């Protein structure tokens, strides 16, 4: 949740340095996903492929175990193929696979009972991957589709890979282990997206959006959320980032994730200070604070700040977008406050009326403000490059509102965001109805992968790469 801090000394008292750290991603494209073509074809189990024949202890022979077994088989086949090149030795398959019913009496695995354990996990002491076929897997399948189950098993296999490759030590914080496992999951999903998985296929458009959206629900070691906490998994933003690194750069990038790398990159350790976590309603005071923060963040671009008005205004032939519109001719951002208030509602299970949270609402305002910055720079406003630049600029605004911005930058203005706010932005970016990565007409960049990547680059590196990497 977003909040305003009371310390007036921070207003205008901070210099703004834009980090010029080169990105590892190279050039950016709107027409592919990390080098693969954008596709919106089928995602899920392939029809007509014989089932894998891996032994699974305790299986009831049902649909969930069939799905899980095929998933483990394909993930194992992937690692058998790439492990020698990545880590210099042959890949040893996991010794045991176990299915259980969390509602039943439970079985003993690694010294613990599975009774009541709606989870999936890898346990190194017995080299076993186990899953709850009765509650967890059906829940994931019903809520997110079968590829969510594949993602969970790829993540657990990622822990087995970690154990075999020696890429993490027993002293590493859990967030490092989790970041690596999410990264290994991304590496496997590239293999699926390339069409190389025997039992599954995934589109690089909606298919990957769904898989990235489910990452935050994979909690194989639930617990506290601090960076040093024993069970920190990272924020949704951190988890999607790790997945994208694996997808784009492969297993060696995952192996390079150590404490220093993770600490430099993640939002999870940016502790939320006490007394700052009040929800901000969509009202005149908050909108003024948002406007002040946008002016501060983009001041150094030299762009004339747009006027922000709370009534809808027409703009010649430019379509009106909701919940905010930008009019280049008058340099005006007009807001639909009622719609912003709807989006600012916390997420609920009722998808029809559900919002994304307060930050997601203000990020849409920021997206139209970002169009004014691009307009002043003479950049195109109505194409996919504009959509990506917009996401990147919204990311750079967000990255300067955290208490300890990445890259030794100073926070700007009086608004502050928490990791949970950034997660709201990521959820909106992966959804189908947001302006954060949309152009002047409100058309979103087709792939969520590219939207989140652009947002992250701005968040981590500031404004500069938004124009240099996305078509200046
Ligand atoms: Zn894990």
TrEMBL record:
Q: Which InterPro entries does the entry mention? A: Uncharacterised_pept_Zn_put
| Location within or outside the cell | Membrane
- State the SUPFAM superfamilies in the record: Metalloproteases ('zincins'), catalytic domain
Return any one Pfam family short name: Zn_peptidase
Does the keyword rRNA processing belong to this entry?
no
* Signal peptide range: 1-19
Would the keyword Membrane turn up in this protein's UniProt record?
Answer: yes
What is the protein's membrane topology class?
Single-pass membrane protein
Alphabetized, the UniProt keywords read:
Membrane, Signal, Transmembrane, Transmembrane helix
Domain of life from the UniProt record: Bacteria
PANTHER family from the entry? INNER MEMBRANE PROTEIN, PUTATIVE MEMBRANE PROTEIN YPFJ
Q: What is this protein called?
A: Neutral zinc metallopeptidase
